[in-house]
Amino acid sequence: MEKPKKSRNPYDVELPQSIIESFVRFLVPEIRKFYESEEGKRKFDEWKKVHKRAKVENEEGG
What we know:
0% strand; mainly alpha; single chain
């Protein structure tokens, strides 16, 4: 009797630490630039409003 094949998760990938660190060195400054921009500040404010509203609704049982 054959064992069923285990499906491999395509997102289960191990990356070398050097690759991760290189990506972070690129990404973090870009994220900072975005959140310091007018668009980033506006989007973050919108995000906070939505999440504050959702938190209140969850606390009220809604």
